[in-house]
Specification:
single chain; alpha+beta; DNA Primase, Chain A; DNA primase DNAg catalytic core, N-terminal domain; five-stranded antiparallel β-sheet; five-stranded mixed β-sheet
Length: 627
């Protein structure tokens, strides 16, 4: 876990106006900066960035947070990735465990990465310039139905035919960074006493720059213009690029994914570019390799609905099966994975051009749910009317079900499978060696969190949690007994426990903006988000919490008054919650047919405590706040 003290130091050094300004055009408006919100469509600016508070807030859609959460929400970075990105910008090293023996120092790694990114950017600029003067390449793109605007949007270029064209782009063609970046290849052996021969990797190909989630060019895909092998040639594995974890078009598709509510995973670069032009900017593609769990993890940082589109032939079914296996570890109840199989004569590009965008959108809406595809895969080709066929289906289902988290979705699939094979749910679970209801452990700092179903917090619990979220410093004012009451709140005890733990970690620096950031990676974020948005729906609250100026004496005085009032309300709510729990406990005890002497003494003690609380609550009034 990254220490809270480091996160606070980092946010104190970062200029949020500069971070947000890379993506949003901001104009000075009084003490703050204003712009059009990047999280929803609007014509008049309601998006505010406060340089003093180091916070952003949209009064239109309620989006809010610090520089960390902005990179998470807008750039699609994970929590650790966002922290690392900001730390690099201000020259800080993120605290880590001791490096493995022989591993390069962080400073050396950063220098190597920045050098390679610069090399790839210069190569990308060179290829783009070459495309403008290559009529054959331009004609090829026109035949594929692409416009100059879409080619410019994706940064398409052209690698001319020839062996050493990149000499024109780099002063030193022998620079090792060109080799490390995968732009050039060296022959195995040079002539005796001579240097090894070096030549360009990409020649006479349309160039597709592959970007990471920060928009940096980290690799290329090159497509031949006519016939030739391989049809697509990718950059090799480099310190910047790993095929198994990157997706083509993800950087360009971020806004399209957010607007559509899902991501469409297709099989090729050209599909991604063509679909973006035809009205489907939410498409991405794997890089000539099978879909991996890392790919799925990256996609889930953007959306909770993933639709895979594959050809309907045998190769497409095999690719879909590998995608299914990559999704299973991430198949939580609030996520949706679907599989779309187009007719064998079509890919997504050709289908849209022949049948229209609406017809393709209808196909996407009818895509096969993961549960249906899984059961279809394990039962396909089996003689399900025979015991041997049903046994074989269970044999194939076992490793797939074991990869899934123990949640409601897996339970539903087990039910459906049990019906297909004519067995009971318990028999299927036992044969597949599944422990129904077992929980899955997960490190939320290292991967996309397994979000839980939204648990609505209502009534007195809602009031208590709202106060803690607005002013996290209150958590450090509570007694051990008061925090114990909240942590043991039955259904919502876990939620209160998470907030109180963060309050303690933050200490004197406990603040709404830090709390909101940290909870974004919580599996219970849906529950927290409801209350945070409710808090910020009142403009006065939003301004007090996010545009607060610690140098303004009037604001400081108002803040102190609010905290004192909220602490009183919070303690009153805790007493009410404790009173309700005592009533429930006593009701349970007195339902028993007979009580032992110890149980009776315990009930009498609880009754005295309840009566004392009842008198206090009556004196406090119906609002639950002492007058």
């Amino acid at each position: 876990m990254i220490p809270q003290s480091f996160l606070q130091d980092l946010l104190n050094r970062v200029d949020i106006v500069e971070v947000v300004g890379r993506y949003v055009q901001l104009k000075k408006g009084g003490a703050n900066f204003m712009g059009l919100c990047p999280f929803h469509n609007e014509k008049s600016p309601s998006f505010t960035v406060s340089p003093t508070k180091q916070f952003y807030h949209c009064f239109g859609c309620g989006a809010h947070g610090s520089a960390i959460s902005f990179l998470m929400e807008h750039a699609g970075l994970g929590f650790v990735e966002a922290v690392e990105e900001l730390a690099r910008n201000v020259g800080l090293d993120v605290p880590r465990e001791a490096p493995m023996p022989g591993a390069p120092a962080p400073a050396a790694q950063r220098a190597q990465t920045l050098g390679l990114v610069d090399v790839m950017t210069r190569a990308c600029d060179y290829y783009r310039k070459q495309l403008r003067g290559a009529p054959v390449a331009i004609e090829y793109l026109k035949r594929r139905g692409l416009t100059g605007e879409i080619a410019a949007h994706f940064g398409l270029g052209y690698a001319p035919d020839g062996w050493q064209n990149l000499e024109a782009a780099f002063e030193n063609y022998r620079d090792d960074q060109l080799l490390d970046a995968g732009l050039v290849i060296e022959s195995e052996k040079g002539e005796a006493g001579s240097t090894k021969r070096r030549y360009d990797r990409f020649r006479d190909r349309i160039m597709f720059p592959i970007r990471n989630t920060k928009g940096q060019v980290i690799a290329f895909g090159g497509r031949v213009l006519d016939k030739g092998e391989p049809k697509y040639l990718n950059s090799p594995e480099t310190p910047l690029f790993s095929k198994g974890s990157e997706l083509y078009g993800l950087f360009e598709a971020r806004i399209g994914i957010r607007d559509a509510g899902y991501v469409l995973v297709v099989e090729g670069y050209m599909d991604v570019v063509a679909l973006a032009q035809l009205g489907f900017p939410q498409a991405v593609a794997t890089l000539g390799t099978a879909c991996t769990p890392m790919h799925v993890q990256k996609l889930l940082r953007q959306t909770e609905t993933v639709v895979f589109s594959f050809d309907g032939d045998a190769a497409g079914r095999r690719a879909a099966r590998r995608a299914l296996e990559a999704c299973l570890p991430h198949a939580d109840d609030n996520r949706s994975f679907k599989f779309l199989f187009l007719p064998s004569e079509h890919d997504p590009d050709s289908y849209v051009r022949e049948h229209g965008a609406q017809a393709f959108a209808d196909e996407v809406s009818r895509a096969m749910p993961m549960s249906q595809f899984l059961i279809g895969e394990v039962t396909a080709g089996k003689e399900m009317h025979q015991p041997e066929g049903r046994a074989r289906a269970l044999f194939e289902a076992k490793p797939l079900l074991q990869q899934m988290p123990a949640n409601a979705l897996r339970g539903q699939i087990i039910h459906a499978l049990a019906e297909r094979v004519g067995s009971s749910v318990n028999e299927v679970a036992e044969l597949c060696e599944l422990h129904i209801g077992a929980a899955r452990r997960q490190n939320a700092w290292d991967k996309a969190p397994a979000k839980r179903e939204k648990r609505r917090v209502v009534g007195t619990e809602h009031r208590a949690l709202q106060n803690l979220l607005m002013f996290p410093a209150l958590g450090n004012e509570l007694t051990e007994e008061e925090t114990k009451i909240l942590r043991e709140m039955g259904h919502h005890g876990e939620i209160f426990s998470e907030v109180l733990t963060l309050c303690r970690e933050m200490g004197a620096e406990a603040d709404f903006r830090y709390m909101s950031d940290r909870l974004k990676i919580s599996p219970n974020w849906a529950s927290f988000d409801d209350i945070i948005r409710e808090i910020l729906s009142f403009e006065e609250n939003a301004r007090d919490l996010m545009l607060f100026d610690p140098e303004d004496e009037a604001q400081v005085e108002r803040r102190e008054e609010q905290i004192a009032l909220r602490l009183t309300e919070l303690r009153s709510a805790i007493r009410r919650l404790h009173y309700d729990r005592l009533c429930e406990a006593l009701e349970t005890i007195f339902k028993r047919a007979s009580l032992t002497s110890d149980e009776l003494r315990h009930a009498q003690a609880l009754s005295r405590e309840r009566d004392e609380l009842k008198r206090w609550l009556a004196s406090a009034g119906t609002g639950g706040t002492r007058s």
